[in-house]
Amino acid sequence: MKKFIGWIVVLVxxxxxxxxxxxxxxxxxxxxxxAYQTEAARRGxxxxxxxxxxxxxxxxxxxxVWQTSGTIETVNVDVGDxxxxxxxxxxxxxxxxxxxxxxxxxxxxxxxxxxxxxxxPPSELTLAQAQKAIADAQKAVDDAQKxxxxxxxxxxxxxxxxxxxxxxxxxxxxxxxxxxFAPYENKPEDNLRRAYFQSRLADAQxxxxxxxxxxxxxxxxxxxxxxxxxxxxxxxxxxxxADARQTYDDLLAGPDADDISxxxxxxxxxxxxxxxxxxxxxxxxVVTAVYLKTGDQVTPGxxxxxxxxxxxxxxxxxxxxxxxxxxxxxxxxxxxxxxxxGKEYRGEVVEVPPVGQVSQGVVNxxxxxxxxxxxxxxxxAMTAAVTIVVSELEDVLLVPNRAVRFRDGERVVxxxxxxxxxxxxxxxxxxxxxxxxxxGGDLQEGDLIILNPPSQFEQQGGPPFGR
Length: 467
Prior knowledge:
Largest sheet: 6 strands, antiparallel, barrel
Number of strands: 19
Structural class: alpha+beta
Number of helices: 7
Strand content: 25-35%
CATH topology of the domain at 46-55 and 307-457: Elongation Factor Tu (Ef-tu), domain 3
CATH superfamily of the domain at 46-55 and 307-457: Efflux pump adaptor protein, beta barrel domain
Helix content: 25-40%
């Protein structure tokens, strides 16, 4: 009986001890769970980003100043007006301009006329006149050559006899023509028969004179003076023929490119001087400042207007050399402004420079972002928080950035197992502001990641994050 009672006592003690141990384990686990903030490792999408700040600027900005002196005659725009490229914004009084600007207007007219004449194609009449000039010059060469030949060639008797016979025949022909014309000599000049016989008489007279001249040349003896004159006449005629041909070729080929360039340069120079009397918009823009009024006196360098192209607003942001290779043209951007509460704006990377700038030993690259859905609340010079989306991943294992630690040269997270923190080595991939991709390691989906592990579990040795 005593032995039975003893076993009962032992069983009671063992049961009480087991109950006490289980109670201790539960309390310890409850304490651990209460002490640590945890989050289960999960899979999901990740938007990897790079953050920076910058100031909004217009696509183009220009400050216009006067390049000459004078009195303001008109101011055609006000602040806020939209202007087109080439639109006249202000002009000076004609009588107040310097002499060189006034005279340039006449120079411009003359230079433009010279250019127009140069570019105008030759007319049919001009080409016909050039062809006639060639024919006349060729005849002059032939005549001069014949004259020189007649002076330098020794006449043969047979040639003299032939020339004499030609004179006789030409004289008879002329006399016959004179007889035929005589009955109509007193007829009116518009009489067709009279005109016909008068033409025959003229041809016969010309033929006779040429025959006589030929005979005289054969019978005559040339001296040195006559030879020199004949040679000079031939050379002159040949030069005139060459000039006539060159003129015709030039007409067909059109104006010389150098001549056109020179004429256009004269027009441009005169126009530039004339343009000093007014200011025009260099591009489509909004007038953002006006510094003058009608009647003001201006001198070279006087500021007149500021223009900004607000059709495209840009933000320049400084990106570290560590991140620059992940930034590409065309990547989407999210922008927020302290001055515009509760709104996010879309943007796009439009320029990534190939060369960085070194400042105090740090290399940064100035990346340009363009706003795509800008409204009237966003204005140049405002400060923008820029988030560049460098990649978008789907269904990846995620770990909170705040939970990652650096231990023994490796990145780890602490996982709660059996109420105790256990380090798990991980390899990180892309990251956002709050989460990173787990690219490798022993972390499993569903593991309870400790967000606030005790400091005694951490080993200082480097930053928890790095790219």
